[in-house]
Amino acid sequence: MTTSADLRRRHASTWEAAVGHRFVDELGAGTVADPVLARYLAQDALFLDAFVALLGAAVAGADRPGPRMVVARQLGLVAGDEDDYFTRALARLGVVGPAEPLPPTAGFLALMDDARRSADYATAMTVLLVAEWVYLDWAQRLGNAPADWLHAEWIELHRGPAFAAWVAFLRGEVDRVGADEDAFARAVELELAFFDAAYG
Amino acid sequence: MTTSADLRRRHASTWEAAVGHRFVDELGAGTVADPVLARYLAQDALFLDAFVALLGAAVAGADRPGPRMVVARQLGLVAGDEDDYFTRALARLGVVGPAEPLPPTAGFLALMDDARRSADYATAMTVLLVAEWVYLDWAQRLGNAPADWLHAEWIELHRGPAFAAWVAFLRGEVDRVGADEDAFARAVELELAFFDAAYG
């Protein structure tokens, strides 16, 4: 069994609780209440900067040119499309200015910042893998996206062949260079706590 | 006078020798000999990985979200378009496999690697500024690009509004956070030596 598959198996109950969360069901059905989505996205927007910084650290720290280039291209996409979605979605939901980070957000920011400052490629890739793979998993289990772009785009940003290939790449890298299991476990728990926090 | 303007003034003779180099004239006229261009591009391709890594370090180390996102977007472009040009150009020129780094290349790789490992945003931005600004300067002084894509694309990659805005951004960041003059001086000298080396 690969490292990534083994880690996911060892943390399956928390993983499945995140992937099967009420928030995901409601997002897929297009019924998530605006204040819940606003609360969630305002928190998630706080990550974007730390996430981009962590991708930068992975680009700087990659041990081979090929993977470095793959991460660099993804970084360009994240800084483009995802940033754009946040701007439009937060404007429509009437969220003004940055939110105060809730505890799971603060925990995730600390985890990403630790990984970035470690300058350790394996740790950076482990945290990125959890963040992306959990999202691919929940987005892929949903059926056709709802009509409203506010819900649909957030789903489609996290599935489809390009995003699936990105997650497969992250798995391959973690399988190749090794994982930081502590960081993996913390990240999965924080993903679950993050969905919970959207409901206040 | 701004920091960037002052630095360029203090290193003007080396700077102008690079920008006014015979290689640039021949590239602009479409008369650069294939073996010269092959030698130059094979060396320049050796930078791409270190350059992308340095951009990653700047993304990781930026002190503000706005500039971080600007560098991240540029990183996506470099990893996309520029990588693609190298692949096609080296194939057409019959360059197989990576070259051995010539002394100026080795010097530049060491400078970029030092800047990356320093994890110092100001140093990273100083090296990036020289690398990009010298190129903007020589590309802008040329007239209409020659017909052959092999020459034209290399010129157009380094001028035009988007690239000029990127260099203006780098200048603004160096003016804001300060420069590493030592790194600036080394980089300008290496740019000049790099063009010289194309002629063997």
Can you give a write-up of this model?
- With 200 residues, the first copy, chain A, is mainly alpha-helical.
- Chain A has a single domain, classed as Heme Oxygenase, Chain A, CATH 1.20.910.10.
- In chain A, 80% of the residues lie in helices and 0% in strands.
- Chain A is built from 10 helices and no strands.
- In chain A, helix 2 packs parallel to helix 10, helix 6 crosses helix 7 and helix 7 crosses helix 10.
- The longest helix of chain A has 28 residues.
- The radius of gyration of chain A is 16 Å and the shape is globular.
- The N and C termini of chain A lie far apart (38 Å).
- The mean pLDDT of chain A is 94.
- Chains A and B meet through helix 4 and helix 5 of A and helix 4 and helix 5 of B.
- Most extensive protein-chain contact, per-chain counts: A-B, 28 and 28 residues
Q: Which outline of chain A best applies?
A: globular
List low-confidence stretches of chain A.
none
Order of helices and strands of chain A: HHHHHHHHHH
Whole-number total of structural domains of chain A: 1
Describe the sheet with the most strands of chain A. Answer: none
Question: Helix coverage percent of residues of chain A?
Answer: over 70%
What percentage of the residues of chain A does DSSP assign to strands (E)? under 5%
- CATH architectural name of chain A: Up-down Bundle
The level-1 CATH class of chain A: Mainly Alpha
What integer value in Å does the Rg of chain A equal? 16 Å
Q: CATH topology of chain A, which one? A: Heme Oxygenase, Chain A
Number of strands of chain A: 0
Averaging pLDDT over every residue of chain A, what do you get?
94
Tell me the structural class of chain A. mainly alpha
Our count of helices of chain A gives 10
Which superfamily, in CATH terms, is the homologous superfamily of chain A?
Heme oxygenase-like
Regarding quaternary structure, what we see is homodimer
